[in-house]
Structure formats: structure tokens, C-alpha cells
Specification:
Layout lengths: L2 H5 L16 E5 L2 H9 L3 E8 L2 E8 L1 E3 L2 E6 L4 H8 L5 E10 L6 E12 L3 H10 L10 E17 L9
């Protein structure tokens, strides 16, 4: 072993130091249950393309009639993409989850669809009341994501058929 190799820390995945757990399995969620779970948490991650590469940003959201709404600011890349998109909007994915780090049980939901800027003043004002930004930017815009595809999984202990809103 060279001195250079000796100075490099060993790579770990966390599995080696974690206590052993019972086997896990995933249960596919239907669209309604996946959206219910997504609506039960205030935060998620928006995924969109920036400079031809995937970009992920943590955001807070509200679920409104099956659509996911987030607030953005004028300089945000997503705001510009949604503004420049044609009538269908810009393709995005939205992910939210709750997974317990100790038990490794929980759920994860991904919604994929089109994002459009909310332009109607009364609707925008309503979202400004419903959705308080959690970062220090002035958030003058709202983006509505209309999901075409909603998938989700529940992570359960093997043999456990149900898990609450983890």
C-alpha cells in the first residue's frame, strides 16, 4: 500500500456499521394512496432539466386537486423554464418520502408531469396564502405540476402487510 492509498478514507455505504435488520419488501401504491401520502408531508424535491442535465431542488409544496404546487422566485431556473415552455409546460418529476433511518421503513412517491406557471392573479394570491416559503427569497411565482404518472412504494418489514403514514 502506498502512502497515498493509506491516507484515503475507506468508502462505506452505511450498511457495514448499521445494525442488522429484517429483510424489507416494497409494496406498490396506487395513484390515490401515493397522492394522499405526498399531500401528508410539506417538503419534497423537484427534478427538472438545466443545461441539459438533471437538477434537483428541495422545496415545500401543497397538493391542490391532485396537482402539486410550489412557489418560486423570478430568478429561479424552473421559473424561466416554465415561462419559456409552450402550452403543455415543462416536464418535471416531483419526489417526496418519509423513510425512518433506523427501521428503514416508510414510503416514497414520484409524480412525473408538466409544470406551468400560475398566471391567474386570484389563483396566485390563493397559493401565496396557502404556501409559505421556507427560504429567504421573495417568492412571487407559483408553479403547478399536473402529474401524468404517479408511482409510489411502501417499504415494509418482510411479512408486514401494512405500515402507517411513516
Amino acid at each position: 500500500m502506498t502512502n497515498e492509498t493509506a491516507r484515503q478514507p475507506a468508502l462505506t455505504t452505511g450498511e457495514a456499521t448499521s445494525p442488522p435488520h429484517r429483510p424489507r419488501r416494497t409494496i406498490e401504491l396506487d395513484r390515490d394512496e401515493a397522492l394522499r401520502l405526498l399531500g401528508s408531508v410539506p417538503f419534497g424535491r423537484i427534478v427538472f432539466t438545466r443545461h441539459a442535465l438533471p437538477t434537483v431542488r428541495p422545496v415545500n409544496h401543497v397538493l391542490d386537486g391532485g396537482d402539486i404546487v410550489i412557489r418560486t422566485h423570478d430568478g429561479a431556473a424552473l421559473t424561466a423554464h416554465a415561462r419559456d415552455a409552450d402550452g403543455t409546460g415543462v416536464v418535471v418529476a416531483y419526489e417526496a418520502d418519509v423513510i425512518d433511518p433506523d427501521t428503514r421503513l416508510g414510503w416514497s412517491v414520484v409524480a412525473t408531469g408538466y409544470a406551468r406557471l400560475v398566471t391567474e392573479p386570484a389563483e396566485l394570491a390563493r397559493y401565496q396564502e396557502l404556501l409559505v416559503p421556507w427560504i429567504g427569497h421573495t417568492m412571487d411565482h407559483a408553479v403547478r405540476i399536473s402529474p401524468d404518472l404517479v408511482t409510489g412504494v411502501r417499504l415494509t418489514a418482510d411479512g408486514d402487510g401494512a405500515l402507517g403514514n411513516a
